[in-house]
Design goal:
heterodimer; A: 228 residues; alpha+beta; Jelly Rolls; four-stranded antiparallel sheet; four-stranded mixed sheet; 26% strand; B: 196 residues; Immunoglobulin-like; globular
Chain lengths: 228, 196
């Protein structure tokens, strides 16, 4: 979500609030015309709808471990306000949760912006990969959601990418610009600058749907090493 | 125009304000999907506009090369950002001229979903796919809400809540080697008018 857009919506909210307060408390109503009632009513009503959708979207969106998602998208009967919030916050025709769930992150578990200047690890505890009847994946994009070339030509990892578990059954995924010491199998190459991540689970299991499963945080473990 | 009682101005204002608030909220999903409608029917991706009531499958080369440039004039709305998991097929349907038959091929256990989205509310009223209907070949009759004809025997019927429907199909691609097979299957997901 762009800052400019946020400021724009905030400005719409402020302007609407200003006109509302002025009309109710500071206007000499005996000199008003019906035309201005109608025009201002429509403009302010529409403006407040946009602001409400934004605020509601942010309230209904859940951020866990730095991962943002919104539950209930796409489901018939999910309510006019959720649909409006989805329209303005998470645009596009989104899959119903039973079909696929998506999480998005541009910051680590400590709310610091993700960047190739640092090294990160995502640790899935033993048995902690997302339960599903489809598949899951973790996909890398740059700050503008585009692929970034890398030596492995690897742009995502997941259940079919040959991730090697640790001795205790846990799985570590390394997000960094250079290959990790442990080998390349669990490396998802990061770009030099800022990046974003998509976590997708198709046909998620009950634990994913009810929120028992939480996507593990992306943890910053150090700074970029090696030649650039 | 003036009103007899000054406070009535506040009432008129409030009525229009609340109405505009509700109408804008209600129409938001539809407004958001308008660029998609335009993207499909007027712009298209690779080979020009995608005709109404047809499905367009993401070209193999655009999936194979993550850095492939879209031809000028293509809509960018239809690529789901960074996604290496599923090929997509999309289409905009107008069911007011009669039902369509959705044909899906034998998918042999492959994950896929054909998502049918109410274009007024941006909610998914039905899925055909591995989760909901399995991976065997099949035909599904897709009708608008007011169609009164008779479905051919042996064909499951899906009644859409609106005549405007957005179709987004996702077909699993295991890896680069699997892409040709996945693409060939995606091409076999077809929409045809019901001929009576």
């Amino acid at each position: 979500m762009g800052k400019t857009y946020t400021y724009f919506i905030a400005a719409v909210g402020v302007v609407c609030a200003y006109f509302l307060v002025r009309l109710v408390f500071f206007t000499d109503l005996s000199t008003r015309t019906v035309q201005s009632d109608v025009v201002q009513g429509i403009l302010i009503g529409a403006g407040l709808a946009l602001v409400t959708a934004q605020v509601y979207g942010r309230l209904r969106g859940t951020r866990t471990n730095g991962w943002l998602t919104m539950r209930g998208c796409g489901l018939p009967g999910n309510g006019m306000f959720l649909r409006a919030a989805q329209a303005w916050v998470f645009t596009g025709p989104i899959a119903s949760p039973q079909e696929a769930m998506y999480w998005w992150a541009n910051s680590d578990g400590d709310a610091r912006r993700l960047s190739g200047e640092h090294r990160y690890v995502m640790h899935f505890p033993p048995g902690g990969l997302p339960p599903n009847d489809g598949f899951w994946s973790l996909t890398m994009g740059d700050a503008r959601n585009r692929y970034v070339p890398n030596v492995l030509q690897r742009y995502h990892v997941g259940d079919r990418s040959g991730l090697v578990p640790n001795d205790d059954g846990s799985v570590d995924v390394y997000l960094q610009t250079t290959a990790p010491d442990g080998g390349e199998a669990n490396w998802l190459p990061a770009p030099e600058g800022g990046f974003i991540l998509w976590f997708r689970v198709y046909v998620p299991g009950p634990a994913v749907l009810d929120g028992t499963f939480a996507v593990p945080p992306v943890v910053r473990t150090g700074e970029r090493t090696g030649e650039r | 125009m003036r009103l007899s009682e000054p406070y009535l101005h506040v009432v008129v204002f409030a009525v229009f304000c609340v109405a505009a608030f509700l109408v804008t909220t209600y129409l938001s999903p539809r407004l958001m999907l308008l660029p998609y409608k335009r993207g499909i029917l007027s712009k298209g991706v690779d080979s020009g506009p995608i005709p109404v009531n047809t499905l367009y499958v993401q070209p193999e080369r655009l999936f194979a090369d993550p850095f492939a440039e879209l031809p000028p004039g293509s809509t960018k709305l239809l690529s789901y950002g960074t996604n290496r998991d599923t090929l997509y097929a999309i289409g905009w349907l107008d069911l007011s001229h009669g039902p369509l038959v959705l044909h899906v091929p034998e998918m042999s256990g492959r994950y896929y979903s054909v998502q049918l989205t109410d274009a007024s509310r941006n909610t998914n009223f039905a899925y055909v796919g591995s989760r909901t209907t399995g991976t065997e070949a099949g035909d599904y009759l897709l009708t608008g809400p007011r169609w009164t004809g008779e479905a051919p025997s042996g064909v499951a019927t899906i009644v859409a809540p609106t005549n405007a429907v957005l179709v987004a199909a996702r077909i699993f691609v295991a890896d680069d080697q699997d892409l040709p097979a996945a693409h060939a299957l995606a091409e076999q997901i077809r929409l045809t008018p019901l001929t009576s």
